[in-house]
Amino acid sequence: MIRVGEINRLEVLKKTDFGLFLNAQDFGTTMLPKKYAPDNVEIGDLLDVFLYFDSDSQLVATTQKPVAQVGQWGLMKIEGISSTGAFADWGIKDKDLLIPFSEQRMRFSVGQKVLVYVYTDKASGRIVGTTKFNKWLDQTPANYSKNQEVDIIIAERSELGFKAIIEGKHWGMIFLSDAFGKLFIGKKMKGYIKEVRSDGKINLSLQKVGIGKMDDLGSRILSTLEQKGGFLPLNDKSSPEAIYATFVTSKGTFKKTIGSLYKQGKITIEPEGIRLSE
Fold first, then answer.
1. Calpha distance 190→220 (Å, rounded)
2. What is the CATH number of domain 211-276?
């Protein structure tokens, strides 16, 4: 089944001087322009292409990879403003993504970067973007368990912390007390379910909660020490940035974990770093 607005695998039917004709099934054939066609392609080969409609409502194929496909979020730069809305660069050179004024939470300016959800407008069949996320989120029950690892996208900054999109389905909150490292709008990363509250709201953590986070980090520290010949130039005096760059954890959790490993006799803590015990 062909999915417009997504990457599809299509068969090459014909080669011409200006491009390739691909089998688009119910849509007939579609053209992959020569400038986007790989070299040494033969009839019968299968190509992964992104499909979209051009300004004449013709189905077009490209090997360019969009920032976000239909049903996904992506950080995009506003390239222009018209009477119908804003146009964002979604990674397709020949066509910007329209964000209608009715789908904007606030008015944009050229050059601004915004997090956009891509969807197909049912009325027009056109692929468009929106920054009004609420109607796409929290539509299903949040069946998560504590310390469950999830994919998240940082979506908004508030006085309390950062709102994040969980698995493309639910809103979650990372409070400032649980935030560390470089967080910015559009960043995709792993997170952990800290709590699903009685009111249905979800609190997130960037590391496992409780004893679990120390056990997990302890295993990673020992594994990294083994890979690095038994020594790492990190200890409780190291900067939060250096610790985060290596283990993606807070300095507080790192200090507690190496303290526990030291008490267990698994490592020694030296002025220059930590070392596996013999």
1. 16
2. 1.10.10.10
Q: Mapping DSSP to helix (H, G, I), strand (E, B) and coil, where does residue 220 land?
A: helix
**CATH, domain range 7-62:** 2.40.50.140
Q: Does domain 73-134 have CATH number 2.40.50.140?
A: yes
Residues 228 and 188: their CA atoms lie apart, in Å, by: 28
State pLDDT tens for residues 45-103: 999 999 999 888 889 999 999 999 999 999 999 999 999 999 999 999 889 999 999 99
Q: Domain extents for the chain?
A: 7-62, 73-134, 149-205, 211-276
Predicted model pTM: 0.76
Strand-pairing partners, residue 97, are 88
Order of strands across the sheet that contains 231-232: 231-232, 273-276, 267-270
CATH number for the domain running over 149-205: 2.40.50.140
